[in-house]
Amino acid sequence: PHSGARAPGDGAPERPRLGSGGAVATGFPGAMLSEVLLVSAPGKVILHGEHAVVHGKVALAVALNLRTFLRLQPHSYGKVGLNLPNLGIKRAWDMARLQLLDTSFLERAGNTALTPEQVEKLKEAAGFPEDCTDHERLAVLAFLYLYLSICRSQRALPSLDITVWSELPPGAGLGSSAAYSVCLAAAFLTVCEEIPNPLKDGEATGRWTAENLELINKWAFQGERMIHGNPSGVDNAVSTWGGALRYQQGKISSLKRPPALQILLINTKVPRSTKALVAGVRSRLLKFPEIVAPLLTSIDAISLECERVFGEMAAAPTPEHYLVLEELIDMNQHHLNALGVGHASLDQLCQVTMAHGLHSKLTGAGGGGCGITLLRPDLERPEVEATKQALTNCGFDCWETSIGAPGVSMHAAASLDAPVRQALDGL
């Protein structure tokens, strides 16, 4: 039997298989042929619990309303194209060639990570040029992996062009790769009719059902594995579900109706190694267990208190709630400094915002990277603008955005902002 065949009775359902000869059709399910799909998914920030989460404590991760957008255009000229304008990547593969690949190694891949040999097979299919950067390699592998794995259930691989453009800076700990994987998974599952298109006529935005989101999340996690090897699953879960999630020792649960808080997100642009920072905290814990263990317990308590306040705010937010959130931000920032993951750039960020009466903390690994500043609803516009200007003057990138944003969504073209539409149309 050809290598795509299965031993009888191995329990898996039969499904049509690619690479087993036959005419190369570009057949889409009828309705999908001319339809452009527009999908977006949010990035994420850790609100509380970074570093402590490594030691079994609770972390709160929230969806960041800086989004990654994907445009899927079906066509019939026998190619599959990937365009990533942020990274300057433009690639296309011949359908007939992909159709002939033996993709049987993807059969079982839905639940487990690919072996190094299987990744090599995928790299062969990708046909990387010599001068290919790591960034490009990982982005392309995740794309091909999700495309081949999800679309192999079709009579023939669909011929299509994908453009992905993001408001998220890559490598800043904001979940840009997860948002990319979530968008790809949602688009492929929809185009292959594994899940329905949630967009109703005349609506600007559509969201999938919980059951469909589970499937999107499962595949997005596989895409994240291609990029990160051993991800926690938090980033793709936040990007899929949106809102706020609580994470502890591999268990992820959604917070009911978290408040959509306005924030400044600041990128100090100081590069750092997450691995080195995590190792630093671990060695400090070993060196001073009586000092550092209580700090981690205290950070855990901050996460829990924040979760409790969010619960109260769901009913009726008050000015007092914002004051508590600000205190929690300050205490957590001091704890993170005591753990040794602060940085002069982050101290400067906190001082600048404090001078304007605002409260900030690092988010993510620390040692540079990004910080967040809470914007209370009663703030006057000039105060916010002055703060943004002061941060920009320090050489930082600064975005005004919100957290607790909706998860992966399908959009009507008319509902997207012009700059997003232009970026996706390759202008």
Automatic annotation (TrEMBL):
Its EC number is 2.7.1.36. Pathway: Isoprenoid biosynthesis; isopentenyl diphosphate biosynthesis via mevalonate pathway; isopentenyl diphosphate from (R)-mevalonate: step 1/3. It catalyses: (R)-mevalonate + ATP = (R)-5-phosphomevalonate + ADP + H(+). Its main location: cytoplasm. Residues 327-380 form the GHMP kinase C-terminal domain. Its cofactor is Mg(2+). SUPFAM superfamilies: GHMP Kinase, C-terminal domain, Ribosomal protein S5 domain 2-like. It comes from the Eukaryota. Keywords: ATP-binding, Cholesterol biosynthesis, Cholesterol metabolism, Cytoplasm, Kinase, Lipid biosynthesis, Lipid metabolism, Magnesium, Metal-binding, Nucleotide-binding, Peroxisome, Steroid biosynthesis, Steroid metabolism, Sterol biosynthesis, Sterol metabolism, Transferase. GO terms for biological process: cholesterol biosynthetic process; isopentenyl diphosphate biosynthetic process, mevalonate pathway. The keyword Lipid biosynthesis applies. One of its GO terms (cellular component) is cytosol. Residues 1-21 are annotated as: Disordered. InterPro entries: GHMP_kinase_C_dom, GHMP_kinase_C_sf, GHMP_kinase_N_dom, GHMP_knse_ATP-bd_CS, Mev_gal_kin, Ribosomal_Su5_D2-typ_SF, Ribsml_uS5_D2-typ_fold_subgr. Homodimer. PANTHER family: MEVALONATE KINASE. Belongs to the GHMP kinase family. Mevalonate kinase subfamily. This is Mevalonate kinase. It comes from Camelus dromedarius (Dromedary).
